[in-house]
Write a structure and sequence with these properties.
Chain lengths: ~525, ~280
């Protein structure tokens, strides 16, 4: 069987399976040539995108061994797809969790084989050496991981072909013509002529493989130092068991956070399934927390949506966002109950936001402004720094006490409506005198007869905020507000837009009469 | 029997000082221990409304650990919401003597566009300032009911209110039980819905605006007690007029209605933003 891919010059083989390889086929061959050798060749169309997806899924799955995993960029497999793409794992400091490096690699091989993948694994001091050994290493037994003892990579690489250095095919061919077939042949050659002939790449790859040049591997997901892991001897498939495991993990995480006086703002739960899949759930909190019960409760809603597949083998919890959180001093005054209540508010807001979405819990802040829609502002209850964020754009938040401790005076002009329309509703209103209150108006097709009206309360736009050029007529932005009661007793807040009688300079042409527009802005209690 | 009682009383009097001190300490510790369970500040005394209303209600006030429905006829959205806000304000105020009393007001996202957003300066008149009120914006009735239950389970709140279009019996029963367990009032505000549907609520109030309001800013409503568990039958025939003034509810049944007037003339130009407080004072 072979995977084929259309490329210039016709359809070519992109990869072959062992049976096809023994028949003498190799990647790069045209399909016609391959068919001539092996008439019964089965072919499958290559799909690089899905290959990349699968690879990153495997990289995800490898997160059970170390958080530092990274799928190899596709461009790296320069020697053709036959070498296959790989996944980097940096297992520094992780091996002892699995009883040593050998056991870790064996476990990795066994598990990945169970998923139906053929894989070769190598462990070395440098990524370059590991890459080479995984592809060109000659192990004692097939399927055994290659492990290079620390410092032994120079020796191990010596016998490998130069292709193992991740070089372009042209470079490999060039070296071959010179009789340089093994990596060991390059060790003692002078650098300058090599670089002059084959480019910087050769020297770089050699140095990388030997550890003379650092080659950082960037992890697939950001690495958080606050991460705890739990593996089960047997896969678990029940949500209750997962929840119990979650509690144990959170308890361990809490101890670590408490030791460093931190609280988490975000927690990520990752479940590694038997079938190689990975299920994740993320929760956020409004303030730093390390209360196990609270975090577990936030996860509770998410757990039943997770796909456990045939069971979960390993679960981890990471806290990618942490903030300082000091132990709180319990207040010994009589205000114990109040403290308790404030402490409970955060968890409640977290739970509500978790289910209903971000920004679904708001506080209604008051601002020092005469313009009604500016005076009341809904800010997210999670965001206790909303004032800072908006900067000078917003009027300062109203404190409910003045500096000398007296309560703030009521809103100017007295009562304000209970409900305010975000967009004032256009109404048809009829007034007895042009600048008087309306006698009747139509709103949402209903005719309201006014029996009682109070006003006007004139509210002009805030000139210090306006960006209109000076001198421009802004009188049309002035509003005259009326409190209206209709025959049924409903009370509304209406306004007329603009001033009626503009003072005109003697001799100037009077402006054309404006048709006043009426709006309904609020509903009183 | 009588002699026994006398004997106990005598013992009480004879209690040495040490025992009395111990008893007071026990009472104090008991109060502290209750903190975790009941959120501490929640009292079991019913909410006092007005003398007239309290006389009718079986508990001598609005029961705290119970579900109460407030329904408004179509169109009278302001009145029903106003009365509900007044009840919430009373519940929050009772607590606030001893600390923070926070209430939860749950609505749908689109209610804001349709019926107007909750307006902070207006709510402040009911004692529901920004530090007292949390608004929850949910997508469906289902989510609102969930949020109410969640709020009732938390010890942080002293009242919850949900604006829903419909309330099934099961949902009302759940809310009633949750409110009972926590001892805080749960309010459900319904507009444009049948006011005769069965529910497990303790009371159901129909609120319509009272007409012919005199000048001033009293918020006045006409109340019908449609349902009340444990009340006498004749209480449901009555209707009351109440008004919100100075941070509490007042009976206003006997208040003389002034003749309807068209409007007051505008105040002096220099005082445009101030309204006359008494009708007679309008210039």
């Amino acid at each position: 069987m072979a995977v084929v891919m259309a490329s210039h010059g016709g359809i070519r083989l992109a990869a072959v399976n062992p049976a096809a390889a023994t028949a003498g086929l190799e990647p790069g061959l045209t399909l016609a040539a391959a068919r001539a050798v092996l008439p019964g060749l089965e072919t499958v169309e290559a799909d690089p995108h899905r290959d990349a997806e699968t690879l990153s899924r495997i990289a995800d799955w490898c997160g059970r061994y170390t958080p530092w995993t990274s799928p190899e960029p596709l461009g790296l497999s320069v020697n053709g797809a036959a070498n296959g793409s790989g996944v980097w794992l940096d297992i520094t400091g992780c091996a002892h969790l699995f009883d040593g490096e050998g056991a870790l690699l064996k476990d990795l091989l066994r598990n990945i084989k169970r998923q139906g993948f053929h894989a070769r694994v190598a462990l070395a001091d440098t990524p370059g050496a590991a890459w080479a050994l995984a592809r060109f290493g000659v192990s004692k037994k097939p399927g055994e991981p290659e492990i290079v003892t620390p410092g032994g990579h120079r020796l191990a690489l010596k016998v490998l072909p130069v292709a193992a250095l991740r070089l372009a095919t042209t470079v490999v061919d060039g070296l071959d013509r010179l009789g340089l077939r093994r990596i060991g042949d390059l060790y003692d050659l002078p650098r300058a002529p090599l670089v002059a002939r084959f480019g910087q790449d050769l020297a770089l790859r050699l140095d990388q493989a030997l550890g003379r040049v650092a080659e950082p591997v960037s992890p697939r997901s950001s690495i958080t130092p606050y991460r705890v892991r739990l593996s089960f001897p047997e896969a678990i498939g029940h949500l209750d068991d997962v929840a119990a495991g979650l509690h144990r993990l959170l308890d361990r995480l809490r101890q670590r956070l408490a030791d460093e006086r931190l609280g988490l703002r975000r927690a990520e739960l990752t479940l590694y399934r038997v079938d190689g899949g990975v299920a994740r759930a993320v929760v956020g909190t409004s303030r730093p927390v390390r209360d196990v019960a609270h975090i577990a409760r936030l996860f509770a809603d998410r757990l039943d949506k997770l796909d456990l597949g045939f069971g979960v083998e390993v679960m981890t919890i990471a806290a990618p966002v942490v903030e300082a959180m000091d132990a709180t001093q319990v207040n010994l005054s009589h205000d114990l109950a109040a403290d308790e209540q404030t402490a409970q508010l955060g968890p409640l807001i977290d739970r509500l936001e978790m289910r209903l979405g971000r920004g679904s819990v708001v506080r209604l802040e008051s601002r020092a402004s005469h313009v009604p829609e500016r005076a009341g502002l809904a800010v997210s209850a999670l965001d206790n720094r909303a004032d800072l964020r908006h900067g000078q754009d917003m009027a300062p938040a109203l404190d409910h006490q003045t500096t000398d401790g007296r309560p703030m005076p009521a809103a100017p002009g007295g009562a304000r409506p209970l409900r305010l329309f975000p967009q004032p509703q256009v109404i048809d209103a009829m007034a007895e005198v042009p600048d008087g209150p309306p006698v009747m108006f139509r709103w949402r097709r209903l005719l309201h007869k006014v029996i009682h009206a109070e006003g006007p309360e004139r509210i002009a736009p805030e000139w210090w905020r306006d960006t209109a050029p000076p001198g421009e007529d802004r009188s049309h932005l002035t509003r005259d507000y009326y409190r209206i009661e209709d025959t049924d007793g409903h009370r509304f807040w209406l306004y007329r837009e603009g001033l009626y009688d503009l003072p005109t300079m003697p001799g100037a042409v009077p402006p054309p009469p404006r048709v006043p527009r009426w709006f309904l802005h609020g509903v009183f209690a | 029997m009588a002699s026994e009682v006398k004997a106990i009383q005598k013992v009480d009097e004879d209690l040495p000082l040490k025992d009395q001190v111990l008893a007071t300490l026990r009472a104090k510790i008991g109060a502290i221990e209750k903190v975790g369970k009941l959120g501490g500040a929640v009292s079991t005394t019913p909410l006092a409304l007005t003398p007239d209303l309290d006389a009718i209600l079986p508990d001598g006030g609005l029961a705290r650990g119970a579900l109460h429905e407030v329904v408004g006829p179509p169109g009278a959205q302001g009145a029903a919401a106003g009365f509900a806000a007044a009840l919430m304000g009373l519940a929050a105020k009772d607590i606030s003597d001893s600390g923070g009393g926070v209430v939860l007001w749950c609505r749908r996202h689109y209610d804001g566009q349709e019926n107007g957003e909750l307006y902070g300066p207006g709510l402040a008149a009911f004692g529901l300032g920004p530090e007292r009120l949390l608004e929850v914006r949910a997508g469906r009735d289902h989510d609102i009911l969930w949020a109410l239950e969640e709020g009732l389970q938390s010890t942080a709140l002293c009242a919850v209110l949900g604006e829903v279009s419909d309330l099934s019996f099961t949902a009302s029963r759940r809310l009633q039980l949750a409110a009972e367990a926590r001892g805080v009032p749960a309010l459900v505000l319904r507009h444009n819905s049948q006011s005769h549907a069965v529910s497990a609520a303790q009371t159901r109030w129909k609120v319509t605006p009272a007409t012919n309001v005199t000048a001033g800013y009293d918020m006045r409503w006409k109340l019908n007690l449609l349902r009340c568990r444990g009340a006498t039958a004749d209480s449901q025939l009555e209707d009351w007029q109440v008004e919100w003034r100075d941070g509490r509810l007042h009976d206003s049944r006997n208040r003389i209605r002034t003749a309807p007037r068209r409007f007051t003339v505008a105040a002096e130009a220099g005082q445009r933003s101030r309204y006359p407080t008494e009708p007679g004072l309008a210039v």
